[in-house]
Task: structure prediction
Amino acid sequence: MRESSAIMELPKKDYWSSLLGDAAVYARYSLVNWFKIILLVIKHGPWDTIRDLRRYPWILVLLQVNRLLWRFIRGRKGRYRKASAMVMADIVAAVIRMMDDVFFKGDRLVIHEDMIPPEILRAMGLVPFMAELLGILMPMIRPHAVEAYIDACENAGIPPDICSLPKSTMGLTLKGHLPPALAIVTSNLPCDGGMSSYALIERELSLPTIRLDIPYRFNNEKAVAYFSRELQRLIAWLEEHTPGRMDWERLREICEERNRMAAHELELWDLVRLRPSPLAGEAVWLSHMWNFNVTPGAREGTHIFRDMVAMGKQNLEEGIASIPNERFRALVWNPPTIHFIDIYNWAEKAYGISLIMDSMTFNRLGPIDTGSNEAMLRGLSQIIMAGPMARHTRGPAENYLNDIFHITKHFNIDMVWVAGHIGCKNTQALNGMLRELCREQGLPLLIINYDLSDPRIVSREGIIEQIDHFMENIMKAKRLK
Amino acid sequence: MNFDAWQAQLQLVLDQPENVFIERATAAGKIPLGYTCSYVPRALLSLDGLVPVRLRAPGVAGTEIADIYLSNVICSYTRSLLEYALDGRYGFLGGWVFAAGCDHIRRLLDNLAYLVKPAFVHMLDVPHRQGQAALDWYVEELAVLCRKLNATFGVDTGNAALSKAIARQNRFNQKLQAIAERRKEKQPPLSGVEFQRIMIAALCGGQEEMLDDLEKMAAALKERKIRKPYRARLLLVGGNIDDIAFIQVLESCGGMVVADRFCTGSIPGMALMDEEGDPLQAIARHTLSRIACPRMMEELDVRLQAILQLKAEYTADGVIIENLKFCDIWGIESALLVQGLRDAGVPVLRLERDYRLSGEGQLRTRVQAFLESMGK
Result:
């Protein structure tokens, strides 16, 4: 076990000053969040807001977003706490923009699956609405929020063993809680369950639907050319079925902004490689998940990463670690436990574990070549095909295993935590191999048995119990708190 | 030889993964290649010097070791194959050819490569949709496989050899069609179990050897006097069924499976391939357009219409949709098909099952109740 020998600590503060610090950051950011929400209500009009709250009950869940803010910042300190709050505020602002789009630009709304490049939709003047986003966001804010949708889906005859994320999305569709849209864009990613779920969604919504085909082996010129042609087919189809028109200059701006954000992210990764890490947790994973997948090419994302890099550098110069007692560094594999989303914060306090890197964040992509229209489509093709859910959960096993062992070395990782979502058959089928390979390399491995979005399968306490057993028996570490 | 004697012989073939057909083919110097999915074109593995073997795990008792690697949420067909592979039961194979048909089979290849390390293993990257780009992609994939087969086994994969393999498979399908058509009769001379026995024997290495026998079987069938009584004519739809025991249960309750639409059945895979033009194009077109499997993501309505058409063509009273538990694509598809068929007024029963026959009593009760619900 590579427990940190040199532990840097923040200047000693007592419990009350820490709590006061948390409260001050919470007050500042939650007030900003509420201010944005109230502005949206005023803009939308109170009666229309009430009508839409009835039509889309999930808005009520999203309104409780400040709960999430509290869970992310509680007990953290200094710039790390501020970075966590900034990421959350960025997401709140983006969700409000999304709501604004739903309310005011419904005539341009296109429902898309989570592995379709939203850059193209935005460049065409369309409003992307990622259907899976609600199934991801809601359990983060309120852990039991999607159970009703999962139940609705299973009651419609969908087998319970299907991944709970597509089940949540299908449930939202069956209950009529998705906003009206012009069209659906989907693909064969990220898994059989996700792909097949769109047969139901298409049937329920009766919308024109296009499905993109992504090859299994993507890491070659033939696959890039094939999927680039699929993206060209998408553009032509959208121009035929929606008022959207491709603005290549706009696409170039989006791709260039994305490149700038990615450059900052690389700097951030260089910082988190250091032991102890000056930033970790949400500053690394949530910022990536949101800004690269939901709102790529938005200037706000670039600013967030730029600011976080600056904070990380300042921490480094001042010898301040993200957590004052970084005993262990962990890699989180698979999508994080979304109904126990403060697992990062919990692990920091309970065991001094910094969750440094994760499978959803790490990638080996270069910048998008914006030299020509074709080059941009090729770049976007590579991003989708090499996306974590394509590369790890669907692609050949070597993608999955090689990345794990590369990351553990590159980021100086002590242990791997696999979020073993019971509905992800693709990754469940690799656990046996991974277990043996980790054993060979002396890398401690924890496979957390749970369900991605349904805490009735394994609760927060059930997850904690598994971690406790692992830390006690394998890592021989006592709980700090 | 009468039809029952043919059937008794074929039953012996079904009991072991390495059957008499494969033994004879191997003795004649042919190389058996295992495959698991209909999107691996059988014609390509039937080139001179090769023999295609659709992989089964007959009589598998448990999957304890495979579960350690694949987990218990992977479909039991996949786990059974890995269990048999780990047990050395496929030692007779010269190689494995997979299609990236579903998540489960893709992971079978990963685990097989890690645990067993077969000398020859290949994955065909099959598109999930049709269209010219998908066809071109798939033709290239087949060409890559041809080059590998040629380089590894020295088989001739030239156009003439491919055309010959296509013609051979077409001839087999034509002859089989003569038997399959008899199921349309009001009193079919053969049961669903008997027909499926022929199908599986053919898929498991017997196609070449059975080619001449099919005509004799068809003739023997004409002589057959026995007409099995039944309560209802059934169309069986779903994923992989290579164990006739499941159909036996359906028929023991009074059902008569007169038509099939599953990947180890005869419809629509029995459709003939184009013998003119580029053979790889013909194989690719045939494979992609057989539209039997919901892994092709755009064709739910086409599949539903095909079922309705088949029901009418074979005058089936009802439809049974079966799927292996944990199969995502069939799990969702069957829920949608059930709804679609009910909307069309078709009696339908959905059965989720394990690869090996289990819960027989419960299965019987459900089938009996279904037949009664149709007033049969």
Q: What stands out?
A: The longest strand of chain A covers residues 415-421. The mean pLDDT of chain A is 93. The longest helix of chain A spans residues 15-44.
